Amino acid sequence: MSKDMQFRTQIPILKSGHEIDYDAKVVSLGSCFAVNMAEKLDYFKFQNSCNPFGILFHPVAIEKLVSHAVLNKQFTATDLFFHNERWHCFDAHSDLSNSNKEELLRDLNAIIVATRSQLVAATTVIITYGTSWVYRFNETGELVANCHKVPQKQFSKELLSIIAIQQSIENTLKLIQSINPEIHFIFSVSPVRHIKDGYVENQLSKAHLISALHSSCDFKNAATSYFPSYEIMMDELRDYRFYTDDMLHPSAVAIQYIWDRFKETYIASAAFETMDAIETIQKSLQHRSFNPDSESHQKFEANLKAKIAKVVAKYSFMKF
Questions:
Q1: Number of H helices and number of E strands within the chain?
Q2: Cα distance between residue 248 and residue 242, in whole Å
Q3: Which of 71, 123, 124, 143 lies 20 to 30 angstroms, CA to CA, from 178?
């Protein structure tokens, strides 16, 4: 067998010129994979906020959230509906739904204000698109972010065209840049497989997203870059052992691998030492002693507090 024979591929990704360090402020928007990456940023105590309206899968849902925030649009009672003993909003995830109408309205409008502030202050926004398939509420003709288990007959399912996605991406870029011209965008396509749409239909959906992104964004431009999370999953981790039991979502091993590639690309190397210190603290916080009153455990606790105090003295925003 040839020594040069290769049994796996690795996608070459250049180090970004726009690095994320502990002074950076990151906003993450999009699919459940956006949450996976945001959880890693949270674990290492970067300044990060994720999906204020909950998970958003398609480009128009993300554009609508951004538009509301940038333009300071406030929700009214007409934006809410009652179903299964709870009040919902088609623009937000079910996690925000509430049995109290006034509370939901207050929460949504508070999120709009907070999101605008986060976008104004952000140095980086990470947008991960999950699907091109969308649902249109027949009564209003509006595309929804979440159907909230309303009967499917009340919706029309359709595939966003590449041109429609391009327009949505460009609208999202212009809206955010209108309040934060210096912000950097990292775009990605979620590796989660939406097989409920069909196998061929899932690939078509991803193809529309990828085509639109590469047509809309100049990734040689300093303002935007593309991180190939979908391509890493398809080409570097092309084995079902890298999926969870449902064979649709990346496993913890796959998420860690893709995070490591993201870290190599976007995280400033100057932050690595602090990340190592925080990981040591995080692992220590998970430690459970069999004898909390023992002298050795007391020393362990004192040592841990000293490590936390050292990190917090440098980065006062960190909370453990």
A1: 9, 10
A2: 10
A3: 143
